Fold this sequence. Notes:
This protein has one helix spanning about 1-25, and strands spanning about 30-35, 40, 45-55, 65-80, 80-95, 100-105, 115-130, 135-150. By secondary structure, it is of the alpha+beta class. A seven-stranded mixed barrel has the order 2-3-6-5-4-7-8.
Amino acid sequence: MLKKFARLLAAGSFALAAILPITASASAPVVAMSIAPTITVSDKQILTLTVTQTCPLLLDFNGQPAFNSFGFVGVQQVQGRVIAHAGGSLTTVCDGLQHTSIVTALAFDHPFRAGSGVAQASVFNLCGMDPTTFLFQCISGSALQSVSIVALH
């Protein structure tokens, strides 16, 4: 009985190993994103940054390019023993074209100042139908960038 179980386990593991490379190589498309390396801050609370995104063509139920207004942009800056945080929203359109957005993020715990920081942009579960395969799929994307924060006077 134990021998049969061991053979079954070995055969199952071999079959799984044979399938995994095929599954792992078939990667879903993603939203390509980048963040400009310079951010401006005004009144120590309002940050303005530029995000570029390219989403492959996905269609909504009306046959129009899918869009998502639930993207997020975050900025952090270390200031001694505290970290300042800011957040804002981002809209993504899946029409296969590159789009550049000016995004505003608002500080929510500490004021920002001129210096260095980190910015992140993310969009999750942007869903639609691929017009070439007619498959419904959901894609995501993100970018992380070290940034220079410049104060506007």
